[in-house]
Amino acid sequence: MKKYNFLAVILLGITLVGCGDKNKAENSLFNIDDSAFPAHFTQKEALTIGILNPKSKEIDSVAYFINDQRVGSTKGAKEFRFELVDQKLGYQHLKATVYFGGDSSDATKRIEVVSDVQPKALKFKIVNTFAHDKKAFTEGLEFYKDTLYESTGQEGASFIKKYDYKTGKVYKQIDLDQQYFGEGITFLNDKLFQLTYKNKKGFIYNAKTLKLEKTFDYEKDIEGWGMTNDGKYIYQTDGTEKIWKVDPSTQKMIDYINVYSGESKIKAVNEIEWINGKIYANVWFKDAIAVVNPESGAVEGILDLSSLRKEMTDITKDDVLNGIAYNPKTKTIFVTGKNWSKMFEITVSE
């Protein structure tokens, strides 16, 4: 087994997924010839598309599309070659519009583009251990101006608190209305942004006072999970393999990446943190963090934190790892979990 597949098992316990529609015929007149397609493509490969013409129609030309974007055309039924270097990881939808005798017909196919990056196995060292509120169902964890903030979930028990992680002293706490299940948070432009789980609403607070300034609705029919930012854009997760890129001024989703470790799609991406140009991501119910390239979605490193459970005797398997906060002042990472009695300050290396 390749090393990255072994690491993906740590991260996911996944099974590999193929294209899924290899022999499916979408069209009675023409079909995309996938007989030479591999199970997966990578971004370093080129895709050569041919047309099957079982009824021997006289083809005038063919226009080719990937994810509804026109990428080229050919005269007659000549094969078309397309480089995949700029395509997202994940499923790509191919379409060939075939023109013949004054008419046209579409043929479609789906391929999967996977990562060719071999993730590095990362290691960590515990620098400090602090007490953590065991009643806190942790969803988001982030430093703002050297102070730690934490958001929690569960209807009737969701709050955001600003506190001293060394002593546990709470400086300020904002309780959400009982109808809301709080999720991830992030600070940007002196605003505190917060998601909710299935309520499809988010909140924007004044970062200094924690006074609520705006409520917004999700643009898409998704769940709210984790949140972070790169200083310009917000990134948020929805419980799938997607990480959405969001305009903080409008809350509009402007792009996304799909997270892959090798050939494996990483589902249930949860709490995320922007650290030195990479996205550190919890995976739901896994005691591991994936280090994700924010441009491609490729997992470049995997940090196995399962040994942290040995540091506590009062948690169960349902008390999952959740909460990543980078302290730029100390250049250390703080991690904890839902209903964990401890929070750990760690350093990470290869």
From TrEMBL:
Q: What is the lineage of its organism?
A: Bacteria, Pseudomonadati, Bacteroidota, Flavobacteriia, Flavobacteriales
Protein name, UniProt field: Glutamine cyclotransferase
For whether the record's keyword set contains Flavoprotein, the answer is no
Spell out the SUPFAM superfamilies in the cross-references.
YVTN repeat-like/Quinoprotein amine dehydrogenase
Identify the keywords attached in UniProt to this record, alphabetized: Transferase
- Read off the Pfam families from this record: Glu_cyclase_2 (PF05096)
Coiled-coil stretches noted in the UniProt entry, renumbered to this chain? none
Q: Which PROSITE patterns match?
A: PROKAR_LIPOPROTEIN (PS51257)
The Gene Ontology terms for molecular function here are: glutaminyl-peptide cyclotransferase activity
Has UniProt tagged this entry with the keyword Transferase? yes
